[in-house]
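Fold this sequence, please.
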Amino acid sequence: MTENRQKRKPGWLKHFGQGLMILIAVLVIGIAAYATIADARSYAVEMPEDSILVDVGGRNIYLRGMGLENDGPAVVLIWGFTNGLTTDSGWWSVAQSELAKSMRVYTFDYPGFGWSDRDPAGVTHSSAADDLHAALVALGEDEVILVAQATGSNTTIFYADRYPVEGIIWIDPDCLHPEVIGFYEINMSDPVIALMKGLFLLGGSRLYDDTLVASKEAWALGRLDGQSESLMDWDTYNAVAMHRGTRREGLARWEFYSAYTDDLHAAAALLPLDSDIPLTIIRSDMLRIQGLDNPERAELNAWRGPLMIGWFEEMAANSENGRVVFIKDSDHIPMIDQPDEFIAVVEDFVAGVR
């Protein structure tokens, strides 16, 4: 009996292995089919009013321009990776229309995000700076103020190194202090990162978006209060949000991740900014708020917080017209949870540049 069992066991394993391979193949085909259908629905969404597609050498870059009848420099709003949120222009839907009452203001989507075509060569903060400049030149905008959230600060550093700017506003920028920069680096050899790449390549970025990203989006929208919700342009937000999780966006997101660590060090090498560039750094209260219910984050921020704040002060002090503005009780997204204070800072900055 023992001998017979030993002879049958390899056959059982063989059938199990074949069944597992068939199951995996069915899952892969199902994910790809679902992604194709869902992507087609996303790409069919109409662009919001005031949308602009600009050709930058055979690819379209998406901007949304409002208040273009106003005089003065163009204010360009750049959204970065922020606490897990997607890096698209939808998050400016609270502030843009209000800012446009007194200034020319554009939102911008990185290649592969929203309606911006993906760059076959890949998207980096460095290459995106060139794309943004080419788009603005095509629109006749030769005087610009860059307003960047979180990782978007890196794009402004590359931009300011190559092209003229009238001023820069950073909101909780990446801290490129030598002792802190490692906190932002991505270990591309991490098996989880490799799994994410495979998921994105198969078109499974919607699965990623519907799980991890959705919880972050709920957190951000939960920061809206009565006043900020009244400013929210839901039609624009929802139209942009339809592109989250598409295969195109998933691949662009992966490329951004892949280049991010190199971008950080390349941007750090270009600092400080030229002293004649006005610089305002908006610092939210995230260092305190993030640690209220998270002891590990509280411990981390107790270490990096003083270094970050000191670095912000150092960058601002290098500018002849630099300052740091602290928005108390605001989390990492002051333009959403305290738009009045955020808008006031931008209006004051633009008035000073004018």
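Residues 45-353 form a domain with the Rossmann fold fold (CATH 3.40.50.1820). The mean pLDDT is 88.
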